[in-house]
Fold each of these.
Amino acid sequence: MSGATRVLVLNSGSSSVKYQLIDMADEQRLASGVVERIGEPGGVPDHTHALREVALDLKARGSGLDSPDLAAVGHRVVHGGTRFTAPTLITDEVLAGIEELVPLAPLHNPANVTGIKVARELRPDLPQVAVFDTAFHSTLPEAAARYAIDTATADRYGIRRYGFHGTSHAYVSRATAALLGKEPADVNVIVLHLGNGASASAVRGGVCVDTSMGLTPLEGLVMGTRSGDLDPAVVFHLERVGGMGTDEIDTLLNKKSGLLGLCGANDMREIGRRMAEGDKAAQLAFDVYVHRLRRYVGAFSAVLGRVDAITFTAGVGENSAAVREAALSGLHNLGVTMDPVRNAVRGSAARLVSAETSPVAVAVVPTDEELEIARDTYGLAAPADKNLADHSG
Ligand code: AMP
């Protein structure tokens, strides 16, 4: 006689809705999918229709939205500002709070809000939980979170470093401790989340103390289509000398820069192929990408003082031995010695790719943001059921 143990995780983006149904009794994935091209030719017209498609798919697999086994819905929300620093049960007031943060994340929060509204309409009786991409970084000390601009201006407009990919950094830093056979509290980790978006974080004893993304996900590492760090005067220069408008510059830096801007491709696999053919632009893009990574590894080593592990995750981090090798080669002075053979082995499990003798472990840990969101959601929405499940196994 167990209660509802299933959690539906929804990641509503501007043009897609990704979903996973996870049974928290054994953390097994029962269904997953994506509805793409929302509002585009060939796609569904809007998020309401997208969620209806999700509901239909789940029904076809025998676990529809009306299933009594469904315990809660967990929503990924990109920006929680300074208000939401932990997973939060969604009420009208919380939803209004997330909407108020739209100016800080105009590309992301509106889609998250729509997803929440539609899901609440479909199952108003069900607990729904918002899990924020910024929450894990809310522990950043002021010294790391503050930009060195006029404090009154910064406070008036909410300008500070918030950080993103928090669910991934939280999950991966804990999984790294487990891989080392230690408690998170005893481990200092640099996490390199290298996907199409990319960010680094410095995690001391399970607590995030620095991260590369800032007010928005534009700052920091070189990404698929985002520039990462820039002299802010580049923006003034583009305006004054290039005659570009704000939206145009926003698009340039977010959508046409990074690897794509440097060589015309944002997929590291294609860049690897082109480098092998001697393509100079692809080589330059790779070199700029890796140089920025090394900078952050060095900076975060100094921030942490003692580093136990450096962990790669997400599409590039999990799959590109070349990026891992180039980013960490020759760092013996920082205590890092890679094992080229281990690094070259492909795999889907969490694993070490450093030499046995390396004082700093180098790990590859597949991220699982959906599972992390499901755990957060279940922990908040169904504590009684959780206890049942915990004690039944
Ligand atoms: P993500 O955002 O985590 O899904 O990562 C997507 C990115 O991972 C893609 O744009 C690719 O550049 C990269 N990627 C995926 N598979 C590989 C691979 N086998 N080798 C290198 N890069 C990869």
Amino acid sequence: MSGLKDLLRTENLSRADVELILATAADFATNPLKHSDSLAHKTVAIYMTKPSTRTRLASETAVAHLGGTPIFLRGDELQIGRGETIDDTARIISQFCSALIIRTYAQSDVDELGKHASIPVINALTDDDHPTQLLADWMVIREKFGKDIAGRKFVYVGDGNNVANAWLLMGATMGAHVVAATPNGKFAVDPAVIAKAQSIAKASGGKVETTHDAKAAAQGACVIYTDVWMSMGDSESERAEKIKALTPFMVNDELMALTAKDSIFMHCLPAHRGEEVAASVIDGEKSVVWREAYHRRTTIQALLYLLTRGELKGN
Ligand code: CP
Ligand code: NVA
């Protein structure tokens, strides 16, 4: 198969790939059963070692809409938990399934699965990345602002985590002006990710900035995006320190008042009202969080359809 076999990292997708996924997802939003025989009599493994509400529901529904059968595998149910290698597991799953959707801790495990599996492997969240979330987010951005995003500023506020990384990398790919406002120090975005996003932006015409000043970042922004302060796998021993560092980055009405008139509030969910976001913002009129969750299914369906047909090109 030529082109892109897997979606292991956000940066694997070219802008043309993202455009094709968005267009295909728009089709699946209008007609969920378009191409409903494309995975007929086929199975897709969904292997998760971390909890999930949206990604699991979206993935299982997407497979069913394409005519296939999802096989959900919990981390502790596979022999991998008893020491079978990733390499051997990848070979076995490849014999039974047409694709593998994986959510786990280490990005290197996902990279390794991609290397050894002969079928498409899709990253459904690691400690470092969350590419399928960003596809849904960009569906919503496209629906709200259209294709012409010149002069618009897309701002992430909060922990420099997997979603912040994906926000910068996908924004750079799309030629957007993206900003991450995080605390300074250990909760900032990884400098290697910033450098990668900046190099992508150089080619796409986008702009990548980071700051430790949430208010300056929010000034005139068209999107304010945030995520939980404690991610899955974060050390509980850091909770108090983290919450103290992140408190100035809470998204509240005061911060939203600095944004553009037509701005929206985004959050991948799950949310903690009163921590990273005020209830008045997430439940308010600028919030598009339910639409983001809705598009998890349309975009994963598009991704599965295109990857299993070898229709993505990659970088
Ligand atoms: N946004 C997201 O990935 O949600 P889940 O953790 O519920 O899958
Ligand atoms: N950063 C969060 C995202 C959850 C969808 C986590 O990794 O737990």
Amino acid sequence: MEGIDQTNLPRHVAIIMDGNGRWASKNALRRVVGHKRGAQAVRSAVRTCRELGIQYLTLFAFSVENWNRPADEVEALMALLEDYLSAEVEDLKEKGIRLATIGDIDALSCGVRHRLAETMRETEQGRSMVLTLALSYGSRDEIVETVRSIIDAVTAGTLCSEDITKETFSNHLYTKNMPDPDLLIRTSGEYRLSNFLLWQSAYAELYFTPVLWPDFTRENLLDAIRDYQCRERRFGLTSDQLTEK
Ligand code: IPE
Ligand code: IPE
Ligand code: MG
């Protein structure tokens, strides 16, 4: 596919989908229309990643901080999420995409939780890609939650504090069943992580683009992957050490 090296694909791509509101104001539309258009960009990103053979795609859809937005915007976002899931479930199934979530799912409304559970159940046989939606997600909350569950295990006597390693920690995060992101994309020209996958992104390649999320096309995604493929991931080693291997 269009200049993509199939042997050097990121295994896990994570995206901070930002800029729906600014896209709406730029087009003299209401913010909610921006979110609607954002949902269409989600469809295209999911399709492209699946086509490329990306194994894990994680989308930041709603942060724990986003609860503080005006109530009508939060409501509209939740309604859009339900619509998205209902409209896409058949396609996800057909394409072998398994839906997963990370975040404080209990904070979501009963209706949304039900729709999520249903979609996860219906897609659980999917083996080609895992699509994870980060919902009511905050990385610091996740880390605090992780510390709590490790302390519980130590208190229960199932874990010794001397045996706690980086791997133990990773295995208690919401993301315990997935590899760390290799490529982390943020749209809309903001250069920050906004409390997304802080632990997991320790060695992610970061890619920032000014494109607003509703305008983010398949070609933009391919650009990000091509850029990733030009990077040398050294993990602290020297360039010579990498070529010696
Ligand atoms: C991203 O777009 C969607 C969510 C955060 C839910 P924004 O709504 O943050 O758009 P801007 O940043 O205001 O343009
Ligand atoms: C991050 O975007 C959260 C999502 C994309 C869901 P925000 O728009 O909420 O982030 P800030 O407030 O600009 O950092
Ligand atoms: Mg934003």
